[in-house]
Predict the 3D structure of the following.
Amino acid sequence: HGIRGMQDSFTALEKCRKPVISVIHGGCIGGGVDLVCGSDIRLMSADAYLQVKEVDIGIVADVGTIQRLPRIVGNQSLVNEYCLTGRRVYSDEAARVGIVSRVGVDRESVLEG
């Protein structure tokens, strides 16, 4: 199973016939980014950030982020930057580039809609 099993788990979210909604608050790091990239709707609290952290430990983000994030943001150069530098993507940037559709003041406001 290994890596293929993990990839299949995240792909199942993307292929789910029901809408999959992710609400990001706090840090969304590594596998969390893989998870939200497979979601249909991505929301975020203002104090949250995303980070493709795998580069810091010398591995490739290979369970979905590299394949899905370019389709989400439409900018391969930006995705390369995220994946090769591991820099944090804060909520304002995430909304501006299209990773999330809406940013709320805090977790509760995002959940309330």
Observations:
- The chain has a mean pLDDT of 89.
- DSSP finds six helices and six strands in the chain.
